[in-house]
Amino acid sequence: MTHAPANQHTTLGMRIDAVLQEIESISPTVLYSVILVASILFSMILLNTGGGRSTEPPRLRDDVTKPSRKIQRFSDEPQPKWYILKFCNYAAVIGFAFSIFKFAIDATTYINDSTLLMKFTVCWSLFMCYFFGFFGISFVDADEIEQRAVAGGFDGREGREVERKGILKGSITRKEHEYPIHSPPQSIHPVCNPNNADIAKKQLPDKSPSSTRISDIKSLSDVEIASLVTSNKIKDHQLEKLLDPRRAVDVRRIVVDSKLSSLGRGGALADLPSSPSLDYSRVFGANCEIVVGYVPIPVGMVGPLTLNGETVYIPMATTEGCLVASTNRGCKAISAGSGAHSSIVRDGITRAPCLRLNSTREAADLMLWCEDESNFKLLKQAFESTTSFGKLLRVDPTIAGRNVYLRLKCFSGDAMGMNMVSKGSLAVVDYLRTVFPTITLVALSGNVCTDKKAAAINWIEGRGKSVVVEATIPQHVVRSTLKTTVEAIVSTNIQKNLIGSAMAGTVGGFNAHASNIVTAVFIATGQDPAQNVESSNCMTLMEETPTGDLWISCTMPSIEVGTVGGGTGLPAQAACLKAMGCQGGAADKPGANAKQLAHVVASATMAGELSLMAALAANTLVQAHMQHNRKPTIGKKA
Question: With 70 as the cut, is the pLDDT of residue 570 above it?
C-alpha cells in the first residue's frame, strides 16, 4: 500500500509555527533593524504617493492659458499656511522612527513589561492613523494648489479668488464649453459702503445672452451688456469698472430707456445729451446772454420709486458724490415699504407789489377796500384779463405806515408762474389807481412775496405747491437696507432736525439736507435753481409705529416748479421731464404736470432725508463720503 508524503498533511497552523520559530532564531538587533527600515520606507511611501502631479481635470487643461511662472499669492485675503503640514508630516515620520528605534534597542525589557508595551502600541496606533489619513496624498505644494485653483480643480476660497481676478483682468481666457462661473448669492449692501468695490466684482453674471464669457465682456455689444444689467446679472454701478466710462454711459442709457419704455416713456432720453454739445440757438434770447460756453453737470437717475401707486424715475443733476446713490437707497427702502403717498394742499404763486400812499389813513383805506369780497371780484377780473391760464385766488394786504404790500396769489397752470403773476399784478395796480389816484408803485416785488429768500411767510402761508408726503418702512427694511434701527433713526431725527434746528432759530429748516435733492432735481428739469431757497422749506418727521415700523413724512409748503417756460424748453431739461412723465403742459387738465413734478420733488426729498438720517444714525456718513468724494485726481492727457 502506497502512503502519501508527510508534507502533504502539513496544515496552515503548522506552517505559521515554523515561520515563528525561524523568526525567533533571528537576532533581536537584526530583527528590529529590519522593522525600523521597513517602517520608514512604508511611511515615506504613504506620504508621497497616490496623488499624482495632475493639477487639473483633463477637460480643462487646454481651456486655460497657463501662466509662464508660478502664480503669486494674493495679498488681499489671508491664505492657508499649507507649509505647516509639511513640517507636521516630517515630524510624524521622525517620531515614528524614533519610537521604533527606542523599542528595538531594549526590546526584551519592553516586551516583558505590559504597561510599557501598551504605551508603545497606543503610540504606534496613533502614528498609523495619521499616516493612513494622508494615504494617497503627496506632500502639500502650495503653488500646485493655486494652479489647481486657476484650472477650476480646487473648490476653495483661493480658487474662487483666482478665478474672479483672472476674469476681471483678462488674464484667463475660457472656451465656450467650459463650466459656468457661479456668482455668490446677491445680498443687500449699503450703496456707499467702501467695501462695495470688491462686492461688485463678486456679483458678476454667470454668462451673457450669447454665452460669451465674462472675460470678453468688452467684446459684447452695448445691447447685450444692457441685457445683463436689466436681468440684474451686472449692477449698473459696476459698468465703469468693467467698461470705459464713456461706454458705460451709453450702456446705462439703454438700460434706463428700457425701464422707461415699460412705463410708456421710451425714447425720453433721446434729447438728453451725453456728448459735449449744446444748441446755442435755443439759448439765445431765452436763457442766457453773452454766452461763451456751458458747464456740463452729470445727471444721475434715481429709482424706481413708488409714488402714489405709480413707478417713477427721477433725474438729478449734481456734482456731489454719493448724493444720487444715497437718494436711490432711500427710494429702494420706500418702495420696499408702503411707497410714497403725496398730497398737494395749496397751489398758488405769489407776487406782492409795494404801494405807497400819501398818508397812513389812505393806506388803511386801501387795505380795507382790498379785503372786501365784492372788491376782490373786480381785482380778479383785472388780473385774469392778462392771462389765459392764470387765476387770481386771493389778495392779502399788509400795511406798514404809508406802505401797503399787496400779496397776490394766483394759480398758474403748468407754468411756475412768475411772469404770469407779475403781469397780472401790474393790471391790478392799474385798476387800483382808478380808485385811489394817489397810489405810487414803489416796486412790483416788495419782498413780501417772498421770492428767492428765506421768509417765514412762505413757511406759514406757502408759495407755489404746498406738499406733504409720507411713507412707512418695515423694520426689517430699515435694518437690511438702511443699516440702522427704527429707534436709532427716530431719536437722531428728533435731536438733529427738530431740537438742533430750533436751537439754531431756523425758518423752514427742520430737515437734514432737503435743498440737496431739490436743487439737483431743479437743475435737471430746467427749474430756477435760485428758488431752492424757499422750495427747500421742509420739516422731516419720523415716528415708530405700534408694530415697530418706521413712519416718515416731509412737509414742504413752498415748492416752486413748472413744466413749461424758462429752462424747461431746453432739449436736455425737457428730456428729464419726459422721463418723469410730466413734460410740457397737460392738455386735458392744466396744472397736472407741474403738480406731478412737485410730488416727485417732495418724494425724492423724503428719500434723501431717509438715507442721510440712516447714515447719521449708523455713523457711516464720513466713511461713505471719503469713499465717493476723495477719488485720486486724474492727470491731464498728453
Answer: yes
Q: Where are the beta strands (DSSP E) in 401-497?
A: 403-411, 440-443, 464-473
Nearest by Cα to 513 from 610, 392, 371: 610
Residue 309 is predicted with a pLDDT of 96
What residues act catalytically? 320, 452, 528, 625
- CA pair distance 134, 85, nearest whole angstrom: 11
403-411 and 391-400 beta bridge pairing: antiparallel
Q: How far apart are CA 311 and CA 306, in angstroms?
A: 5
Determine how many CB atoms are found less than 10 A away from the CB of residue 288.
12
Residue 403 pLDDT more than 90?
yes
Tally: H helices and E strands in the chain: 25, 11
If you average pLDDT over residues 417-439, what whole number do you get?
95
Adjacent-strand bridge partners of 346: 466
**CA pair distance 46, 312, nearest whole angstrom:** 68
d(CA 211, CA 229): 15
Question: Cα torsion for 8, 14, 15, 16, to the nearest 10°?
Answer: 160
| Residue 556 pLDDT | 98
Mean pLDDT calculated for residue range 480-505: 96
Q: 29-38, 131-140, 158-167, 628-637: which range is least confident on average?
A: 158-167
- What span, in angstroms and rounded, lies between the C-alpha atoms of 302 and 27? 90
Task: Give the residue among 344, 351, 362, 355 at the shortest CA–CA distance from 390.
Answer: 351
Instruction: Locate the DSSP E strands across 361-402.
Output: 391-400
* Alpha carbon distance 104, 39 (integer Å): 13
Helix (H, G, I), strand (E, B) or coil at 149: helix
Q: What are phi and psi of 373, to 5 degrees?
A: -60, -35
Whole-angstrom distance, CA of residue 42 vs CA of residue 39: 5
DSSP 444: S
73 secondary structure, DSSP code: P
Of residues 523, 522, 552, 550, the one with CA closest to residue 538: 552
Distance separating alpha carbons of residues 552 and 539, to the nearest angstrom: 10
> 341-386 pLDDT, tens per residue?
999 999 999 999 999 999 999 999 999 999 999 999 999 999 999 9
pLDDT the model gives residue 460: 96
Own/partner pairs for 73-80, CB < 8 Å, 24+ apart? 73/142, 73/146, 74/158, 74/161, 74/162, 74/165, 77/157, 77/161, 79/142, 79/158, 80/158
